[in-house]
Write a structure and sequence with these properties.
This protein is α+β, with helices and mostly antiparallel strands. The protein contains 10 helices and 10 strands. A hairpin with a 2-residue loop joins strand 9 and strand 10. 45% of the residues are buried. Bound molecules: iron/sulfur cluster (2 copies).
Length: 304
Amino acid sequence: MDEDPTVSNPYVADLIQQFIAESPLNTMQDKSGEPAWESALVGFSSGSDPIWQQYKEYIGPFHWTPWEVFNQHHSSENVSADQLTVISWILPQRKMVRLANRKASKFPAEEWARIRVYGEEFNVALRKYVAGHLAKVGHPAIAPMLAPNWTIVKSQRFSYASSWSERHAAYAAGLGTFGLCDGLITAKGKAMRVGSVVAKISLEPTPRLYAGHHDYCLFYADGTCGKCIDRCPARAITQSGHDKEKCRQHLVLSRDYVKETYKFAGYGCGLCQVGVPCEAGIPVKAAREALKRGELPPPPPPLA
Ligand code: SF4
Ligand code: SF4
């Protein structure tokens, strides 16, 4: 099929917002009839961005570049990396869901657990929709997280990692930087879920208005905060960072709690994502204001 030349950055962003607004799949699946999500932040990165090679060195050689994952599933397209764009989105948690989870002290609020399951089911549908729609208008695409060969890999540095990290794709697309707890702090905060699609299309990359991968976290910016350490019921966060294995074990425990308490098969936690300064925005003032101006933030002052 011929490529539709009208497919632009705003076209893709509108496609995502429209699906959120109109899809019947956007639901918490409870009696309230409330949607799981209200809107999305959308960013773009080029398939030829050198950051993808850097991820191979930092995360591990098993982490796909956009070209690798696209080519595995669309080899007949014979594309080069610069013909690909990674479309990333952030689905910020709704205020009602954040407020509910702020009250939790060990296991998640029902609203949060519903989003973890049904909100993510919507996110899967959104990935399929974006990839399917773009293919229909002449831009073949793949959602790496839905690729049949996506897998979790044991990693020396991270205890485990995967073939494709949605958060790292979002970082590449200018959508946020990492916090002490490993979550991605975005313009709408760290309480969110994230998705992406790799498509054969040339779109303008979103500028990364940060100098380093921790710019939006107060702990790294000025040595303060650390509130996520106290929020974690599993003691999985320390000043040295996030212990993924402890976190995973707590998530396993949450399954029984969710089933017994809320009467559905789910799980979750996210206590470190709420009741903290980075819950719903960028807490580092200089970085937040620089982003609003569309500029890089000034370098942080040296720590005392
Ligand atoms: S709670 Fe504080 S220390 Fe933890 S990620 Fe957020 S800003 Fe950083
Ligand atoms: S998700 Fe829960 S267990 Fe994992 S680091 Fe955050 S607060 Fe701790």
